[in-house]
Amino acid sequence: MIKANLGDLDDINLTDNLPANNDVLTYDSTQSSWIPKKPTTSGASNPFVIDLNRWNIKNDGTESAATTKGINDALSWAKSQNITHCILPSGTYALKIDNTSFTCILMQSDMHFEMTAGCILQLETNSSPWYRIFSLKGVTNGRISGGTIVGDKKTHIYQLGIKFVRGGVNADGSLNNNANSIRSEIVDRYCNPGLLKAFRLWSISGVTASGYSFYQYKDTVSNSTLVGSRTNGQFAPAAPTGRGWFAEIENANKMVFAIDITSSPLSDAQIAQITAKVDSQNYTHEWGHGIELAGSNNIEIDHVVISNCTGDAIFTSWLEYKLNPTDYTQEQMGSNIYIHDCDLNHCRRQGISNAGSTDVTIINNRIHHIGKADDGVTEDGTAPMFGIDIESMWSETNIPTWRPELNQTGLELNTRIYIRDNYISNNSRGHFVNADGINVVLENNTFEGYNVGGISSYPNNLYVKYLNNTIINCELVVKGDNFVNGAICYNGNIKIADITGAVISNCQIKNGLFYGSSIYGYLGTPTVDVPTSTFTYSSPHGMGNGAKISFEQWVGKVPTGISVDKLYYTVNVKTNSFQVSETLNGTPVAITDSGITGFNISRFNYGRCYISDIVVERDWRNDNTLSPNFQLIMTGGLIRNVTVKNYEIDIRPLANYVGRPIQIDGVTLIEGGANFEGCNLTNSSFTRSKTGILGGDISLGTNDARYTRKLVVDNCTFQNVGINYNGNVTNNRSTFITSSIGKADNVNMAVISTSYLEDTKINLHWLTRDKSMTIARCIFKNVTADTNSNTRMIDNISL
């Protein structure tokens, strides 16, 4: 057998292209030489395992600069060879951020970077407010999989302590021995490139100087290396804005501060004790990300563990700022991002921030302990500290953005986001928030652990759906026109707020609350100025010109000239008043009287809240301490098929409400009390076997004589409960078994008709107002009545 080195052969060219694993030799007739050639099989089926020795990469946690450079060099070379799958072997890799880009690993397009089991990438301690361990800027068709990425949260440097000596700095940058001045030690920008990018020097105790000077140099400090200086530096925190550098880091990397202490002389001992604070204008350091995507498309991130970043585990956004808004393209917004089977934990700011990209899928991830220390309790983060945050902040950019709620055309940001089968838990301030995403679906996720933010989406975002999620010891906040179908809550709550068309159905709540308010668009009764046809409210109404409104007269009567059948538009709007027109921007409608007080004006679509098939329960109640765990304030709206067990129900409108009744159909209350006001209540059942609530279990209507709104009760069953008729109540076709009937002594009148009463007590002897109560055409069986003439009994039958 003949052995030879290929490089020793005359007809082989290894100069232009070195061979690698799996390369073959092919004859190039133009060179008259054999050259390395890639196999014909695809790079995806023949992954390239990065040779650590060849690229000077250490996997023992040492030599961060060389290791970072080696990984990037290997990826760049693989890209040049059309390799599409690179594998990093197991081991611990120390990484160092670049001084200018604040990036460790630059991902290439059309490449899968795989970290094998046991592969740990550990970011070296740094002081930069910004960093990205992996940067995908404008990358297309990329994948990162496997391994563990660890940020520097536990050792990160947020500020510097700078020592001073006696002496100053001359205008030319040379140092002097001025006794009335102090100057800092030399500050090295290379050691703290990010923190010093926009630096702030804080005021120093015992020094009364009005400001400071600073001098910047290249490499060394002398008059020949001075790059620039300023004598007008102002101390933080009074001056919150940071100061910058006169050149790029390679040309301006040293700095000295100088302070005139003439007004506050210091001894040498006092000067030696100074440790001045220097930090960054961006002092929160919340932009240190594990993986950052900027304007990237078709990206997959899977089976990666990311922890302890000073910002987010994963951050995805649009590419870069354009001076001319017309230069933005849809591709630059980023799209088709797929994040699955990852473990994202203990980062300071967020688990995932989706800050612009569209068509994003987030499936089967664990996102937990964001903003928390290793003990799982101590908060060590920076706001918002959510598991997932969808927030492009489009309104603060110059990107022409599509916003359907504003009838605004443009580019899509944060559109079509699908979040499924994730376990999101124990995050410091919130689990999920959608600030401006459109068409967002959350399905079959589990959210666990109390925090103030819970799970929510801002009310103006369209097409937000919550489907079959589990909520444990936290809260889902339903806003706007959110669609909720299926939720299981254990020690968890569902809250409604800022509702403008929400549908909520098929929810089970155990040991939790269903509560909140739905009052959007209801304005109430105005003061009317007939000569000017102006409607005025005591507080701002919040509408602009052209708002669509309607008039109703459930109580009172609208002014002559106004029709309850017409849609009107606001015109001549002021903060607390407006006129109305029958056409947009049309002539104000003239009225001839002020109507009868009690009518209301509302936005034409108020009352759009639809709640159905809700169960709120606990296994047992030890006493009758009031626990209204189904508690709603509503203006209009519809509630159907609600079951509450061992808790109270409280459903009422605003105190001065004179609008459309709340429609309630099919309430089942077991072992609890209830309060209903301003409602039409039908097909409901109220039963209990335990001792009732002192003073009565069921309250119908309000005892406040100022409010004359009607309460209609139809086809309901009351068993072993006490019912108080406090308001203007009409109760038809109902059944009373072993119950008691009472009424407040007020001007309101109540009626019970065509009902069945058995083993029931009527306790109305204290009524003092004529016709206060009427019981007509009912059937009595073993009924005890304690009444006087103020209760009318008409055509009742006793069995």
TrEMBL record:
InterPro entries, A to Z: PbH1, Pectin_lyas_fold, Pectin_lyase_fold/virulence
Protein name: Right-handed parallel beta-helix repeat-containing protein
SMART domains in the cross-refs: PbH1
